[in-house]
Every structure is written in C-alpha cells, then in structure tokens.
Amino acid sequence: MEARIQLQSDWYTALRENEGEVWVSCKIPGKPTVYGSLKCQGVNHDGIPEVTASEEFEVLEVLKKSIHISCPSGRTSSKFIVPYTSFPRIHDKSITCLDISCGGGLGVSTSTDGSMKIWNCKNGERRRDLAGHVYDVNCCRFFPSGMVVLSGGMDAQVKVWSCEDGTCPVTFKGHKAGILDTAIVDRGRNVVSCSRDGTARLWDCGKSACLAVVADCGAPVNGCSVGVADNSMNLGAPRKAQVRERTPVFEFPGSDALNCCAFLSSLYIVAGAQDGSIYQLDVRSLGTPVQVFHKSGAPVHSIQPIREGFIASQGDGSTFIVQQDLDHTIELSGPDADPVYKAAVWEKSVFTCCRDGLVRKYQLPNL
C-alpha cells in the first residue's frame, strides 16, 4: 500500500473564505497517519486563494479548480480537482452507472429508482426515458455510433435501445439471474454480457441470438471487457476453440473478488478488487502483477483506461487517476464518503455517478 493524501471534501468552498481552514492527512504504510491543515490567507482578484499548509505538508500550486499538495515524509503528492459542474436532477435516487456518447453530447445513466435516462452532457437536461426493464437496471453503455444504448438489468435481460425514439428493438434472454456488466465487440455486431448466474454470454445483435456461453464460472461474474489481442500473444490455433470449448486463455487469482476490469492496451489489463487492490497485469505473464495499487480498503467499483494510465472509483467516495508519466496522483473531489459507482471519460472531461444522486463533471488539466 502506498502513501495517500486525503483532503476535506468541501475544501474548495472552505478555502475561499478568509482564514478558512480544512484538514488534510497522509496515510503512510507502516507508519502513523500524518495529520495537518490548510488555511486561506486571502483571495486574489482572480478568485484564487493564497493557501498555506501546516508544517507536515506543502502547497505546490493553487489554481481556480485545483490544488496540488505534497507530504514530504510520505514522499507523495496529489492534485485535487473539484467538479466543473454537477447535475442533481437527472434521477431521484442513487445513480449506479453512466456512460458518455462518442461525440460527448449525450449521457446515459441508471438509478436505484429503477430508471434509465438519456441526458444532455452540457446542462444535465433529461432527453429521454428508456423504460422496459423489470426491476433495477444495473449497467448501461453507448454503442460506438453514440445513438444506440446497451443495458443489463436485474430481470436477467440485455436490451438494445434507440436514443432517437427510445424504442427497444432487441432483447436478449438466456441468463438466469441479474446482469452485472456488458461489453461491446468492435462496432457492435456482437456484445458480451456477464451475470450473477456465473456465466458470460456472447450475443449476435442482428440475429437477436446467443452465440455462445463463453464462461461458466460457478460464481457471479462481476465485470467483463473486450480487447484486441496482440500478435505476440499465443492464443492457440486460429479457430473457434476458445468460444466453442470455453477454454480460458489465462487466469489470475486476486486477493479478493474482482469487481471490474479493463484493457489498457492489447497487452495490459487492469482489474479492481473488493478489498481495494488494483492489479495491472501483462497477459503474456500473469504469474506476478506488473504493479499493484492499494489506495484504501474500499471496494473498487469501476476502472477505465485514460491516456497512459487508468481512472478508478471506490466505495469510500474517491475517484483517482494514475498516469505512468506523472509523479503525482490526480484526485477528483466532491463526494463525502458516498461510493462513486462509475467514472466515464470523454476527451478531457470525466463524468462520475455517486450514491448521493449527483452526476459530477470534471475538466482535466493537460495530463
């Protein structure tokens, strides 16, 4: 576990007040947690506060929407970014999943109120309700076209929706329990779904049919991701053996249940676990992870590639970005201990959904 700086969730507003003060801490593995504070000494004409830190910390940079802090004793630093805007009225209850269209204009999200909605990414204005699942909708994502949505629900159904008129032309039935995740193959002729019934299935959208049960694990399959294999990988003879025979190409045992996974490239995979561990794996050699990240013991709910790294959200309200060429972590502030269930990336914007019912939109600096 590496050292991690934590900052009071409402630091942005507190440090805009003269002599406003917030707490900051740094958890260092094997050592006592370092506690300190940041204090506003005034605000300049551009609206940027002059911030000083207690002796355990250093303020490296303050901008309009971010603050960069270091803890010398922990040999770590983090840049905290506040939302550019928030959308509070898309759903009435906790938001469990979201995705952004390829053009960045539309968002789709699901909620514990049983709804799935399409909305405008600029102002959060609701455009359309996608109604048809029975019980809660667990996951949603756009097809590459940006005009079609794929969803999976507690009703064990996978559905394909038109964003233009809200109709559902395709429903896949075959799973015996709720759908937990989906993935889209290439442009969307085929899709993959995984379920609490312990299986992952490959579907043909044109034929509305299940092509194969590609995995039967005997326990809930929490996440799935689709990537393109590198030529240097030995996947066996070029035939349909892996799909027809359900032969695993590789396996990796995590320290706890793995909740989510994503391809960073054709060779590297990242996976997040229930105990907070994040594994970066090389598919050519899975005996030992390339790297293990452990920011906290909170469950990792989502993980997505972003440039030369990944963005992860956790059950303690944290969302952070790790980049190979950065010597610091980027932390997305806002939630106060409410789980962040999903983060979606579009260009330099990040959208998150949280148990507090808010969709938050962040504008990232040049990474």
Top-tier CATH class of the largest domain: Mainly Beta
Continuous helix count = 2
Annotation, overall tally of beta strands? 31
The biggest beta sheet is recorded as: 7 strands, mixed
Using only C-alpha atoms, the radius of gyration works out to: 21 Å
Supply the number of structural domains: 2
* Uncertain residue ranges: 238-244
| Helix vs. strand class | mainly beta
Strand content: over 45%
How far apart, in Å, are the first and last alpha carbons?
Answer: 24 Å
Helix content: under 10%
CATH architecture of the largest domain: 7 Propeller
Name the overall outline: globular
**Average pLDDT reading:** 92
CATH superfamily of the largest domain: YVTN repeat-like/Quinoprotein amine dehydrogenase
Strand order of the largest sheet: 5-6-7-28-27-26-25
CATH topology (fold) name of the largest domain:
Methylamine Dehydrogenase, Chain H
GO cellular component, one term: proteasome complex
Family: Belongs to the WD repeat PAAF1/RPN14 family.
InterPro entries: WD40/YVTN_repeat-like_dom_sf, WD40_repeat_dom_sf, WD40_rpt, WD_repeat_multifunction
Keywords: Proteasome, Repeat, WD repeat
At a glance:
The protein is an all-beta fold and 367 residues long. The chain has helices at residues 11-14, 241-244, and strands at 4-7, 21-27, 34-43, 49-53, 58-62, 66-71, 76-81, 85-87, 95-100, 106-111, 116-120, 126-129, 137-142, 148-153, 157-162, 170-173, 179-185, 190-195, 199-204, 209-216, 258-263, 268-273, 277-282, 291-294, 300-306, 309-314, 319-323, 329-332, 340-346, 349-354, 359-363.
